[in-house]
Amino acid sequence: MKQLLVFIRKEFFHVFRDKRTLLIMFGLPVVQIVLFGFALTSEVKNITLTVIDQARDVNSTQIINKIKSSSYFIVDESAINYDAVSTAFKKGTARCALIFPAGFGNDLQDAGQAQVQILTDGSDPNMAKTVINYLTAILTAYQQEISPGAQLPYRIIPEQRMLYNEEGNGSLNFIPGVMALVLMLVCTALTSVAVVREKELGTMEILLVSPFKPLLVLLAKAVPYLVLSLANFTLILVLAVFVLHVEVKGSILLLFLVSTLFIIACLSIGLMISNTTNSQQTALLLSMMGMMIPTLIFTGFMFPLENMPWIFQMISYVVPARWYFLVIKAVMLKGLGFSYIWKETAVLLGMTVVALSIALKNFKIRLS
Amino acid sequence: MNAVVLDHITKTYEAGKVLAVDDVSLEVAAGELFGLIGPDGAGKTSIFRILTTLLLPDKGTASVNGRDCVKDYKAIRRSVGYMPGRFSLYQDLTVAENLHFFATLFGTTIDANYDLIRDIYEQIKPFSDRRAGKLSGGMKQKLALCCALVHKPEVLFLDEPTTGVDAVSRKEFWEMLRTLKQQGITIVVSTPYMDEAVLCERIALIQGGKIMSVDTPASVIATFPVQLYAVKAANIYRLLTSLREDTAIDSCYAFGEYVHVTFRHDTDQDLPQWQQKLAAQGHEQVDVKKISPSIEDSFIRLMNEKQNVQP
User: Fold this and answer.
1) Is A208 on the interface with B (CB under 8 A)?
2) pLDDT at A41
3) Any residues with CB less than 8 A from the CB of A178 and at least 6 apart, and which?
4) Which pLDDT score is estimated for A40?
5) Is residue A32 part of a domain?
6) B83: which of B148, B160, B181, B224 fits an S-S bond (Cβ 3.0–4.6 Å)?
7) Does residue A366 fall inside a structural domain?
8) Which among A85, A111, A146 is the end of a domain?
9) Same domain for A252 and A189?
10) pLDDT tens-digit map of B72-121
């Protein structure tokens, strides 16, 4: 027991005396949160809308005022004709435009029907669709405003609610994703070099000629990173709640328990890599490249898994982050209890056991 | 009882392509200070790693204090001290932390066996808060020796402990080994430096994975079969060239500022006559003398004999 404690203390010394490790450990999550939270947002806000009003009547002016008062658009009325809009699109200075034809108001009043043109830059389909949705919504609202009595005989009015995220806060989707990604990367990358470093520096040679047990080494290597990763997790959570205004709906205790399990799973994978490789470089490459890409793609927070061909869906089943992502979403965003996540938890537990067994089995008790 | 026994040990690397240890048999008595002498690549480290259970031999058996190196590896690991050729302590831990770590690893404390390491540790104690990576070569070796000794091992394996260490520290190191020997610890040490061989009780000369001779240093020197001569001239290179052309000469090789020479027929040479002959060949400041051989001379002779036997 005392051996284990001293061994763990030694591992803590290694971590705290290596400034680069600490920087990666705590710098990565902060950078990721800030990047995803502020730079890589998929929400469309403050987009410049080029407006050409050839009608200049009451109706068109009212619509333009409505658009101006929404927070989505900055209205630019400097373009005077169609050619100017066309040039602006080619230059890339305009990405969406709204054009009222001459006589818009008259058509609306007399014929009961009028047309507007919405132009969007289809090279960015996501943005284009969002802009069309926003503008259609504003136009429909205006239409109902001017003819409240015009009741159609049968009408279906969709009553929309975005459950678990009524305000449409984009942070809600990526926070669980970033948590999964950061913990996965930090835990596997740092532990993957832990054992192999001793091999490279030659310290393994004297460590082997001593009465220690392989399990003791693995435990001692994992404990400091577990402690630091939990601190890391707390840091991400605090950033999410106070900087990105994400509300934790479920039990914090449950959140910490499943995160601990996920961290242990990642540490086991790191140890598995460390015991099967012979240089720190290979280990880092395996854990960074081998883990980062699958985690990004197959976790489901960037690309929906349902759309993938079955073979990729199969692959996603062996990515631990995928299961953790589901758990975090369920507990943190939906406020669900353990009875809803026991399956995912069981999968993570199984992965941990498998990875640890492989790590232990591959621990070389001699020099190869 | 013999502390270390090697019985027909063979070790190859890369699936048998590289022969590192070639049918080596060796015995080291308990309490002995035994030296494995040979150049780099002779197979010294492989033998150490087999004895410390780090490598499995291809053929043969080995034991340390009666324990088999393959089957009883756990018992051996508990009871021996090992200092690898490369400095293998934690460079980012301090001197004191390293020592404490290794003591605890073996289930003991620094205080429990302090008597054993006192003389050595006192010398590095002023630097106990310094990181091991920042120590000088000599101090690193002392720390490594302390760490290998802290659990009071029965047998101490030191693989090239003095390589890369200055002359004064080397001398000190060998004095420490002699003190340790007096405490009853069996010590097996390897070195590429021939001058250190005489400091061992018995030595094995090893070359190309084969043991050439096992004996006390004095006996190894005494078995040198012929008279050895040393010749010096102003231009050593030219001297060596003309000596090689002399058919009466068996071997000649540069040795410091002299050339060591043996003759095919071990009859007493007429030194003044030989000196004149060399002077006549145009060599200046010629000096010729009879000398007694060193371990290195024996080593070179044994090596040459081996090469001549199997061309």
Assistant:
1) yes
2) 63
3) A29, A32, A33, A36, A236
4) 63
5) yes
6) B148
7) no
8) A146
9) yes
10) 999 999 999 999 988 889 999 999 999 999 999 999 999 998 988 998 99
- Are A88 and A173 in a shared domain? no
Of B80, B86, B107, the CB nearest to A209: B80
- A243 in the same domain as A298: yes
- Measure the CA angle with vertex A46, ends A44 and A52; round to 5°: 105
* Minimum distance, in Å, between the CA of residue B52 and any CA atom of chain A: 7
Pairing type for strands A47-53 and A73-76 reads parallel
User: What is the chain A residue with the closest CA to B54?
Assistant: A366
Nearest to A3 among B54, B83, B107 (CB): B107
User: What distance in Å separates the CA atoms of residue B26 and residue A203, rounded to the nearest whole number?
Assistant: 28
Cα distances (angstroms) measured from residue A33 to each of A23, A41, A178, A256, B209? 15, 11, 7, 19, 59
Is A2 in Cβ contact with B92 (below 8 Å)? no
Closest CA of chain A from B132, distance in Å: 13
Q: Can you tell me the ipTM of this complex?
A: 0.85
Task: Tell me whether residue A256 is exposed, middle or buried, using C-beta atoms within 10 angstroms of its C-beta: 0 to 12, 13 to 18, 19 or more.
Answer: middle
Is residue B49 a contact partner of residue B55, using CB atoms and an 8 Å limit? yes
Write the residue in B55, B87, B107 that is nearest to A211 by C-beta: B107
Using CA coordinates, name the residue in chain A closest to B46: A367
Q: How far is the C-alpha of A368 from the C-alpha of A362, rounded, in Å?
A: 12
**Rounded alpha-carbon distances, angstroms, from residue A264 to A186, A257, A346, B197:** 12, 11, 13, 53
* Phi–psi pair at B52, nearest 5 degrees: -90, 15
Q: What is the pTM of this model?
A: 0.81
Q: Could you tell me if B82 lies within 8 Å of chain A, comparing CB atoms?
A: yes
Radius of gyration of chain B (CA): 23
Same domain for A325 and A190? yes
Which whole-number Å values give the CA distances from A143 to A102, A109, B25, B291, in the listed order? 19, 12, 102, 119
CB A283 within 8 A of CB A193: yes
Residues A228-248 have pLDDT tens digits of 999 999 998 998 888 888 888
Q: Which residues of A touch B101 (CB under 8 A)?
A: 6-7, 10
Per the domain annotation, does A107 fall within a domain?
yes
Asked if A201 has any chain B CB less than 8 Å from its own CB, the reply is yes
A344 and A237 together in one domain = yes
Domains and CATH numbers, chain B: 2-221 (3.40.50.300), 225-292 (3.30.70.100)
| Chain B hits for A206, Cβ within 8 Å | 82-84, 88-89, 102, 147-148
Exposed/middle/buried for residue B31 (C-beta within 10 Å: 0-12, 13-18, 19+):
middle
Distance from CA of A218 to the nearest CA of B (A): 15
Residue A22 sits in the same domain as residue A66 = no
In total, chain B counts a number of residues equal to 311
Inter-chain CB pairs, A–B, below 8 Å: 75
Structural domain harbouring A297: 2-40+168-361
Residue A107 shares a structural domain with residue A226: no
Q: Which of A16, A203, A209 is the best substitution to test chain B (most B C-beta atoms within 10 A)?
A: A209
- What CATH number should be reported for the domain holding residue A63? 3.40.1710.10
* Rounded Cα distance, A52 and A58, in Å: 15
- Of the candidates A146, A176, A193, which is a domain's last residue? A146
Q: Do B55 and A7 touch (CB under 8 A)?
A: no
What is the number of domains present in chain A?
A: 2
| Highest-scoring range by mean pLDDT, A38-42, A90-94, B147-151 | B147-151
A224 and A98 co-located in one domain: no
The distance from CA A256 to its chain's CA centroid, rounded to whole angstroms, is: 19
pLDDT value at position A354? 96
Alpha helix locations (H) across A70-170?
82-91, 104-110, 125-146
